[in-house]
Each structure stands twice: as C-alpha cells, then as structure tokens.
Design brief:
Length: 440
C-alpha cells in the first residue's frame, strides 16, 4: 500500500487493498485535483473533496462512503461538486454564479419553505441554538402577516417596496418601517445561508428611517424630583401595607409581612436606578439574572442574545447601583433581578407604574428609554470620550453616539481655539515682540 498523504489512482483495486491501521489515512487522487479518500482509525472509508475557498482557506466535503458508493460514482460526484463549489481561482462573477446554481439545486431537491414555516421552524431553532433573542422573530411575524404563507423566494425587493409604501400610508413612521425591514433582513440572511435563497431581497430595499433622534435627559431639578417621587412612592406602599395588616388582624386573618424595615417595597425604584446607572436597554434590564451580576468585580455581564446587536458586553457597577443591588437582592426574585413573583418569570411590563411615577414627579416627555440617553449624556458631560461611551452602551458604530457629542464640555470651542485662535494669537504675540525690539 502507498503511504498516507500520497497521490494514487483511486479505483476499485486501490479501494479493495485499503487496510485500517488504527490511525487516519489520507490519499489524494493523481488525476482529479482535490478528490481523495480518508480511512478512519475504526476502518470507515470515505470519499472526500478538498478545495481552497475564495478567502484562501481550505475546505473539505464528504462525498460518500465505500463500499456504498463506487470509486467511479464518487469521482463523478466530486466533479459535479467542484462545478458548483466557489474556489479561490474563481472570479467574483463565477463565485456568484456557482452560489446561484447551488441554491437552485437545493431548492429543486427540497422545495422552498414559506416565510411562516421557516420562521417557526429552522429560524427559531437557529436563534435558540445560538442563544439569540427571539424578539426579531416576533417582530417579523407581527409586521408581515401577509407574507407568512408565501414561499421565501416569492419575497422580492419589489414586493417589499410595495409593502413599505402601503404601510407608510397608514401613518407608520419611517424609523419603525426601517426597524421592521431590519428584522426581516436578519431572518432572510439565515434563509440565504440555508440556501433557500440566492440573495437577500431585503438588502436592496431603501430605508428612509433616519429621523433625527431627540436626546432627552434629566435636568438636575428633574432628577431630584424623580428620586423624591420614588421615595414618596415607597413610603405610600409601606403605609398601604400597614393598613392591610391592621385590617386582616381585625378580621383574624393572617397578615402579610410588614414593609416598614425594607429598603424597597417593589421592583420599580431598583429598576429605575439600574437604568439610570447602567444605560441598559429595557429588554436587557428585564433579562438580567443575578448570575449576570458580579458584585465582587462590580460588573454587569450583559449576555449575548439579550443585546440588540447580539454581542456580549460588561458594564461597571456605580456606587449607587452597588448599594441598590445589595439592598434589593434579598427582596428580589431568586433568579431574575426584576422577576415577576406571580409567574416565576421576568417582568414583561411596568408601563403604568412608570407613567404614574413621572406624573408624581411632574416630568413630561421622558420615556423609559431616555434613561439610557441620560446615562450617556452624564458620561459625555463628565468628559468621557465617545468611543468609551459607545462601548458602554453596546453600540457597534461610533456614529450612533455622535448624537451626544454636543454635550462634551467645550468640544467645539476647543477645536476652534486650537485650529484658529491659538495660531493667530501666537502670530500677533510674535509681531508685538518684534515691534518692541525694533522700537528699542
């Protein structure tokens, strides 16, 4: 037998002579480049195809096993595979054509699923396997109901343009339309990777959702009023519990525990304090588990799959937030930082309590998401550079945090001084000095 890693003529005689050695054996065909045979330590014999990808790395595919597949059939299958496998020697046009032919062959063999079937099946499996939030899947299902029964390849750029025009006429804002299209584009990217589509149609649809973002943050007076309203709410909850205890005792019923000696009576104030001191998005906050919070390192680990851009990040815990977590943990849900004790799951909404809190604090035009803007604004005003603000907020693009640039202390004045004023003052100073010397 030839030595492993040598070139041979892969035919019936060669295959019959193969003997397992307890180690991997690899042989390359002498005539068809990339075609080979691999013998595993257990004696399994496989026909393989090795090729160089367009990015320069090597790839290997299993063609079949011997003796179920003959050497001749394996050679023909390897040739057919090479004809539709993109390689480093292919031009970009050839690569795209090979991808298109491969997708067409997969579609002919298996058919193309509908958007609804793919969403509920393979797409959900993909999200769960990769620990990615299913929020986008829910957004696609609610935003594109008329497409759920269509085959994926029936969704074209033009059908999406028509959908965009139709939805815009109902008064939906451009930014909202852009978010819906972005969610669909993510699903169709996975469908393209699964070779149900040759190209992602959502990528070709223009987005008009670049409306100006109003950066709303709390003034010093608003911040004081908000904290005063939260403390007043805590005291009102304690008083309400005290009345309940007295009423139940009078009726000789078991009273609930007193709230007089606890720092927080429910989740709202810890939630607001966390939002203002971490900049986490609402979804990230509600998904927080106690295992994500390291009080020794004073760090919040925001898990991949709960973030908008699906990237893990670490956020330092401020002194105020450390004190809040320390006081809240004995009172909170055992697993979730902001859990629902009635359902043993994370909170899903707190809108009514938040709105009542703002009303009590006499604060208008401040959404819960604006706590994130407030966090970023405080960082920038303190002189923290925008790239570190970007990292703390979990943005992938520095452009997203440029909305806070105007808050940086004297950043425009500093630029003008360095570029114009300081050189001019230096020139004037030199001229005056020269004039003084000449006069002397």
């Amino acid at each position: 037998m030839p030595k492993s890693n040598s070139r041979v003529e892969i035919n019936r005689d060669f295959m019959r002579a193969l003997v397992p050695t307890g180690k991997f054996q690899d042989y390359s065909d002498a005539t068809l480049r990339g075609f080979g045979v691999r013998v595993t330590p257990t004696g399994s014999v496989q026909f393989t195809l090795r090729f160089r990808k367009p990015d320069g790395s090597f790839g290997r595919k299993r063609i079949g096993t011997y003796p179920e597949m003959s050497p001749g059939a394996a050679r023909d299958a390897a040739k057919a595979e090479l004809e539709q496998t993109p390689q480093v020697s292919d031009t970009p046009a050839v690569v795209e054509e090979k991808k298109r032919r491969r997708v067409e062959s997969v579609r002919r063999a298996h058919g193309v699923p509908t958007l609804g079937a793919f969403l509920d099946g393979d797409y959900m499996t993909y999200l769960e396997a990769n620990g990615i939030s299913t929020a986008n899947a829910a957004l696609v299902k609610s935003s594109f109901p008329e497409f759920l029964d269509r085959a994926l390849d029936e969704i074209t750029p033009w059908t999406l343009e028509q959908w965009k025009s139709r939805v815009a006429k109902t008064g939906v804002k451009p930014k909202t339309i852009a978010n819906k299209l972005h969610a669909l584009q993510g699903l169709l990217r996975v469908a393209t990777d699964a070779e149900h589509l040759s190209d992602n149609p959502a990528k070709k649809v223009k987005r008009n959702g670049k409306a100006d973002v109003v950066v709303r943050y709390l003034s010093a007076d608003e911040r004081a009023r908000l904290y005063a309203a939260m403390e007043a709410r805590e005291e009102a909850n304690r008083d309400a519990r005290h009345r309940t205890i007295a009423h139940r005792r009078m009726r000789k019923l078991t009273p609930p525990p007193s709230l007089r000696n606890v720092r927080y009576t429910d989740h709202l104030q810890p939630l607001v304090v966390c939002a203002l001191n971490s900049g986490l998005r609402k979804g990230e906050l509600l998904a927080l588990e106690w295992s994500d919070i390291d009080l020794d390192l004073r760090t919040i680990h925001v898990r991949r799959g709960t973030t908008k851009d699906d990237e893990r990040r670490d956020v330092p815990v401020t002194d105020e937030l450390f004190e809040c977590f320390t006081a809240w943990r004995p009172l909170a849900h055992k697993t979730f930082v902001f859990g629902n004790p009635e359902t043993d799951a994370p909170l899903t909404d707190f809108g009514n309590a938040w709105e009542a809190l703002l009303e009590a604090a006499e604060i208008t035009g401040f959404r819960f998401h604006d706590c994130r803007h407030d966090y970023a604004s405080r960082l920038v005003v303190a002189g923290v550079d925008l790239n570190r603000v970007r990292a703390l907020l979990g943005h992938s693009d520095i452009k997203t945090v440029l909305r806070y640039a105007h808050l940086a202390p004297d950043h425009l004045h500093d630029a003008i001084n360095k570029a114009f004023n300081e050189p001019r003052r230096a020139t004037v100073k030199r001229a005056r000095k020269a004039k003084t010397v000449a006069a002397a």
